[in-house]
Amino acid sequence: MEIPVLFLAKGHERRLRAGHLWIYSNEVDTQRSPLKSFRADEQVAVMSHDEKWLAWAYVNPATLICARVVSRQQDHLLDQSLLVHRIKVALGLRERRYTTRGYRLLFGESDGVPGLVVDRYGDYLAVQISTAGMEARRDDIVAALNKVVHPAGILLRNDVPVRELEGLERYVEVASGSVPEEVELEEGACRFVTSLFEGQKTGWFYDQAANRQRLLPWVGGKRVLDLFSYAGAWGVSAVVGGAKEALCVDQSSAALERAVRNAELNGVGDRVSVLRKDAFGAVRELKQAGERFDVVLVDPPAFIKRRKDLKEGTLAYRRINEAAMGLLSRDGLLVSSSCSYHMEEARLLETLQKAGRHRDRTLQLVERGQQGPDHPVHPAIPETAYLKTLFLRVLPAF
Q1: What per-residue confidence (pLDDT) applies to 168?
Q2: pLDDT score at 200
């Protein structure tokens, strides 16, 4: 089989040689390898300007990231065999670190499978394919997962908006076996139920699991407010971990129904309440009612999805965290997260500091967290380090 060649422009192989897996359209020598000559999803040999072989990649000429590296070994193209190998290597990390079978099994570029994410829920897998190159190998992906993991069912949660940028349709489909409407997972001392068909992302936010455990020493006997609560993972974990009570706030009725069920499942239904409202409106309402909390959790969706959203997104982070500080009791704890890659930790901390000063508060950073080890960071790809969680003691100004 003859593999087409993608030539890089002169001087543009440095980032690739350093370990990054993305090739941008402006890095391609389009005189020698016109992008329009490639089919979206086609596998190519990446060559330097002086015709030295660099890697195998798949292409999509219609996107800014026009190619993604899948192998730096000349005898290993992207096929079912390579996918089996990558899954085995990824599984080795998770089995080494986790005692339960609830985690992100494959984390895209960090696990050598750009455009592919797989979450494990015991006997079931939720798969999300975001690029044309991986979509073309869908059957190989399913076969490789079955060979290595032997799940009872595989669900394709291919309904993310980013697929449209790749020219792909959105769909949700059982690809193998059978998948129940709800699955159960374990996290720390808790059990939770969620839907792989309808839940956000692939059904659960495993990336915050380690940070939810990090919270527990701070919540004994405290009153907790969980903003953007989804299915209650933070709030329920806090109460099971010793908090006096928790209020979960979300604008999704389906999410709050599961938060109630998850509280009952863990025997704390009488200490977890819910409020259906957007977080900004809920904070205003609670403030007017004179409510106070010892711990406030702020874990919003990404306010900054693109660099051009930085100014408005930063303002949104400041507004919600400043409002949250107004609900804290004296010497309270604010746990603030951002899953926006473009919101760097230093910028987030600066934003929180400004919010604190506007409230005439002094902040002490007492702990910091990132995504869990099932979301490993690729040192050459800053984009894989996206989650920041800061634990801040909020005091009267001094």
Answers
A1: 97
A2: 84
Based on the fold, state whether residues 91 and 222 are members of the same structural domain.
Answer: no
Least Cα distance to 359 among 323, 332, 391, 312 occurs for 323
Asked whether the CA dihedral 294, 240, 209, 175 is positive or negative, the reply is negative
Tokens describing residue 47: 């060559």
β 190-194/223-227 pair status: unpaired
Q: What are the structure tokens assigned to 109, written together? A: 């570029």
Q: Which of 24, 48, 71 is the last residue of a domain?
A: 71
Can you tell me the distance from the alpha carbon of 141 to that of 160, in angstroms, rounded to the nearest whole number? 18
Q: Of 43, 71, 99, which residue constitutes the final position of a domain? A: 71
Task: Output the furthest CA–CA distance in the chain (Å, rounded).
Answer: 71
For residue 142, count other CB atoms closer than 10 A to its CB.
19
Please state, as a whole number, how many other Cβ atoms lie within 10 Å of the Cβ of residue 133: 25
The pLDDT value recorded for residue 1 is 64
The CA-based angle 125-138-205, given to 5 degrees, is 35
pLDDT at 246 over 70: yes
Signed CA dihedral, 266, 271, 391, 319: sign only: positive
**CA-to-CA distance for 83 and 54, rounded, in angstroms?**
20
Task: Flag whether 182 is in a domain.
Answer: no
Give residue-wise pLDDT tens across range 77-102: 999 999 999 999 999 999 999 999 99
Question: What average pLDDT does the segment 210-227 reach?
Answer: 98
Share of the chain above pLDDT 70, in %: 100
Q: Whole domain around residue 263: which residue ranges?
A: 187-396
- Is 248 catalytic? The answer is no
Catalytic member of 66, 190, 248, 339: 339
